């Protein structure tokens, strides 16, 4: 999500075994003799389960675990009863009518996979495309999203990243307020339809990653405290609610088993961990280290490359070098590009410099803050990233947060004063770097639709969310106007992509550039190499230059942030071949090599 400021974590540590038979699986587990229902409660003295309207007491085992084996076939609906109180199952595998209703008994192996030979992708092979299932298509379902996968393949995408799917309240939302982590969100489709989406993607050669939230639970529909308040602790504070207690084995098991479920049962190719700086843990082995070890061990067992990415603003290379994650979302690159294009100084944009010099520095160093004082917290932020290679940095010029956390959900090219030429040049920069690029849905054609913050809460929570959203932007100098109500259905429907516009005017021109850039990224021998030691960046006045050189040749990117300039006057050794121009080859004046304002060009030799 946005940029919170919770406590630091310490990367590192060895793996702990989580498949401990003393901690049995909770929820409903289908087996050859029937369905075993289990619950763990430190509060209730009597626990039962109500299946299709018939209540049955559960026998107590040790340590607060209750269990019963029933003939409850697939499709049966159930809830638990804690000391006479009907309570939904927080371990449910499917909640067809939402968080507050009965769960459904499911068959994990019911889907017949068609592409069993899929082995995943390494991080350096990934071009990520982040999408929100509910707004990616008009229908907002897994099935309709699957129909668009051939388009993503043709575009040049290699990996799809889905925003969170763990069940959250209402009929619409971003998914970062999930409360039942094992139940895919019902309005998008049934579990087998999610598996079919992933199966189709694998058949096209596309990896699929899932955004997961292991730092907090949503404020509506979280029933874990009704069973055992020990899941949570006041040792840590969260910007979103009670701190998760990773010393508690059941909480630890909940998270590691959830990760295993997504990767083994649903066959996701990896996980993007939301706001890992907020995953506070004072256990001997940090939960992130255990997760990384679990996920990579599972991948080895299954013969699949599983990826683990962190969203983490702290610029901590140890997340890769010690904890064992594969990559980190790098906000600093986005922020420098953003302030260069817009000149914004509100919020966390304030500490970032703009222009060719600032761009050259973030590209050369990987990120900006590597130990300097971070003004928003008045303490050092970050460490040098010299040990990381280019693919470990996930770079983007748009994502769900950096659009949706804005007052009106406007995209960067919709900001006053940002030209389409400037946006296309920033796109050329993003896709010509050896770092791992991430696109957000629709950016490849400069979609006109915003991506706004939308929810579907009720009662006092709904009023609080709406009022909080309005007051959040009252002090922003770059915004004046009415903030869309997140509770309004039109805020949600207005965020759906308009696929009819992609082949029109500036949209088509931008899409053509993205297709060309992604094709070049696949075919060009220099750009296929993702080594950071082949990369250098600097500036000649207002012109950013980025050079990639290896045994296959040299590629030079020039982005002019100032007045039109003849590149022959820059004092740089210039490759003679034009590979791509942000505004098309005709914009490159024959014989003059004149680079216009906010134009970019990629040159090569041989």
Describe this structure in words.
24% of the residues lie in helices and 22% in strands. The chain is built from 15 helices and 30 strands. It starts with 26 loop residues before the first strand and ends with a strand. 50% of the residues are buried. With 606 residues, the protein is an alpha/beta fold.
What's the short story on this structure?
24% of the residues lie in helices and 22% in strands.
Strand order of the largest sheet: 10-11-14-17-18-19-22-23
Give the termini distance in whole angstroms.
43 Å
CA-based gyration radius = 25 Å
Query: What is the number of helical segments per DSSP (H or I, 4+ residues)?
Result: 15
Helical proportion?
A: 10-25%
Shape: elongated
Structural class: alpha/beta
**What percent strand?**
15-25%
Number of strands: 30
**Roughly what is the average pLDDT, rounded to an integer?**
93
Uncertain spans, ≥5 residues at pLDDT below 50? 1-22
- What is the makeup of the main sheet? 8 strands, parallel, barrel
Detail the topology: elements first, then pairings:
Layout: E1 27-31, E2 34-40, E3 47-51, E4 54-57, E5 59-60, E6 65-70, E7 77-82, E8 85-87, E9 103-104, E10 128-131, H1 133-136, H2 142-146, H3 149-155, E11 159-162, E12 166-167, E13 180-184, H4 191-203, E14 207-212, H5 224-227, E15 232-238, E16 241-244, H6 249-265, E17 270-273, H7 287-302, E18 307-311, H8 318-321, E19 327-329, H9 331-342, H10 356-365, E20 373-374, E21 379-380, E22 393-396, H11 400-404, H12 420-432, E23 436-440, H13 459-472, H14 489-493, H15 505-523, E24 535-540, E25 543-550, E26 553-560, E27 565-566, E28 577-581, E29 594-595, E30 600-605
Helix pairs in contact: 6-7, 9-10, 12-15
